[in-house]
Amino acid sequence: MVGQLNKIHSTPEKSIPALLDTVQPTLLSCQETSATLAALIPPNQFWRWKDMWSNSLRTAVFSAALVQYLGNGNLASLSQVSETLGIKQEWKDRFALPVEDYLHGLISLVNELSRLAVNAVTLGNFEEPIRISIFVKDLFAGFSMLNLKNDTLRRRFDSLKYDIKKIEEVVYDVSLRKLTPQKEELNTK
After folding, report:
1. Residues with Cβ < 8 Å from 90, sequence gap 6 or more?
2. Which residue would you say has higher pLDDT here, 149 or 131?
3. Phi/psi at 95 (nearest 5 deg)?
4. Which structural domain, as residue segments, surrounds residue 15?
5. Euclidean distance between CA atoms 32 and 24, whole angstroms
6. In terms of C-beta distances under 8 Å and separation of at least 24 residues, what long-range contacts does 4-12 make, across chains too?
7. Alpha-carbon gap, residue 165 to 136, rounded angstroms
8. What is the pTM of this model?
9. What is the pLDDT of residues 178-189, one digit of tens each?
């Protein structure tokens, strides 16, 4: 699924919906995996076993969030991602999507969008880095309100600053060369 999504960096903007259509079945197949895991884990044993699938779940969150962003230009909420992955509320004592894993997936999304900002320009899409910049800055503002402990999530959050800097450099270069439409034109899109 992630391998297929990596094609966004070499796919023209008009072909992105077709690419998302090829990823959607794989993303929806996660629902079956979620149901299988929920059936295997005994009641009240979620925290005992969660580390076994935590990295895979974060990757699935990243994929769902990226598909949502590329399709609609907005952020997939925790409940939307849970629904996409087929994680049901009644399983919360056996299998759930922890907030921490959701946040890790969003950080991966920002990491990928910083790459996309650069590659979109090489494909002639000069507006995309500006949209990405606005989206990522809003997301960063949300992360900044959290009181993160000194753990892996905090360290990954710190990496967002470098991604923002990279995106801002792309936006600066595109703006300096006057390759972007005026702000009024961007707001109407």
Report:
1. none
2. 131
3. -150, 125
4. 2-188
5. 14
6. 5/63, 5/66, 5/67, 5/112, 8/66, 8/70, 8/116, 8/119, 9/115, 9/116, 9/119, 10/119, 10/123, 11/123, 12/123, 12/124, 12/125
7. 11
8. 0.89
9. 877 765 555 555
Contact 117, 137 (CB under 8 A): no
Tally of domains within the chain? 1
Q: Token pair for residue 6?
A: 């990596």
Helix, strand counts (H, E) of the chain: 10, 0
Tens of pLDDT, residues 138-147: 999 999 999 8
Q: Tokens for 153, please give them.
A: 């999530």
Residue 18 scores a pLDDT above 80: yes
Q: What is the CATH number of the domain that holds 79?
A: 1.20.58.200
The CA-to-CA distance between both ends of the chain, in Å, stands at 29
Euclidean distance between CA atoms 178 and 167, whole angstroms: 17
